[in-house]
Amino acid sequence: xxxxxxxxxxxxxxxxxxxxxxxxxxxxxxxxxxxxxxxxxxxxxxxxxxxxxxxxxxxxxxxxxxxxxxxxxxxxxxxxxxxxxxxxxxxxxxxxxxxxxxxxxxxxxxxxxxxxxxxxxxxxxxxxxxxxxxxxxxxxxxxxxxxxxxxxxxxxxxxxxxxxxxxxxxxxxxxxxxxxxxxxxxxxxxxxxxxxxxxxxxxxxxxxxxxxxxxxxxxxxxxxxxxxxxxxxxxxxxxxxxxxxxxxxxxxxxxxxxxxxxxxxxxxxxxxxxxxxxxxxxxxxxxxx
Length: 289
Ligand code: NAD
Description:
CATH class of the largest domain: Alpha Beta
Helix content: 40-55%
Domain 3-hydroxyacyl-CoA dehydrogenase C-terminal: 191-288
Domain 3-hydroxyacyl-CoA dehydrogenase NAD binding: 11-186
Structural class: alpha/beta
Order of helices and strands: EHEHHEEHEHEEHEHHHHH
Number of domains: 2
Distance between the termini: 50 Å
Strand order of the largest sheet: 3-2-1-4-5-6-7-8
CATH superfamily of the largest domain: NAD(P)-binding Rossmann-like Domain
Protein name: 3-hydroxyacyl-CoA dehydrogenase PaaC
Bound molecules: nicotinamide-adenine-dinucleotide
Family: Belongs to the 3-hydroxyacyl-CoA dehydrogenase family.
Organism: Marinobacter albus
Number of helices: 11
Shape: globular
CATH architecture of the largest domain: 3-Layer(aba) Sandwich
Radius of gyration: 19 Å
């Protein structure tokens, strides 16, 4: 049976945005030392502060011991230089959804880390095969796709590229299980499983909006209350971030040779161009300030 990484293994998370901070929390809760790095000054510290804020609510409600809180937050180490993560056994990148930027980071990580270090990508849609193609050892790259918010969502897609070593995917699967997640294996098809199935949900909702069927709040309420969806499409894309969701749609659209089934929405493009990225910027379809 494949062994999961033990808690003596340091984990590094690169990118301390919505996903990276959540993933750092998950790994720290499981007992690992976690390095958190972001190229934006202060972002890693802000990521850890965000985790502390979330956990503090549970302390206040009596659902988490103060001692456990201190231990979890104390295990997250914001680092300003990428070189500080060199002794990690698993590095999970959660940076911007862009093939070339991710490739550059992965190449730097390959130089920095030792040969046993597993490199994982939290990409929502970019081919793991393509991300690994320029690495010297693409067999150690695997997709580890968490869902938003990472501490609450159980599913993790463990995505194998063409060159991914099965043993590496097995270790990541076993580790995710130890972290309390429900991992599934997927191959590197555009959008993998969930983001592929979810594309028509977003696309048709955006088309309905463009056709003037109803406003976002009405459409969200109908899908939540009558359709039994946990969240409507507009509140959900505000949570995901329109920059991320739009990049994922473009990635799937282009991977399928511009199949119009996956056509990106002009409404979402406008939101991205206006900087209305959703919750993280204070405004998307809704206002948060
Ligand atoms: P985000 O915009 O909240 O955070 C990205 C962070 O990465 C930013 O803080 C940015 O400063 C940092 N960054 C960018 N380039 C960097 C680099 N070269 N080195 C170090 N840091 C860098 O984005 P997010 O929503 O956390 O998404 C991150 C990744 O996770 C993307 O690949 C996205 O597709 C994927 N993902 C997102 C969601 C979601 O719902 N938002 C869900 C699953 C997966």
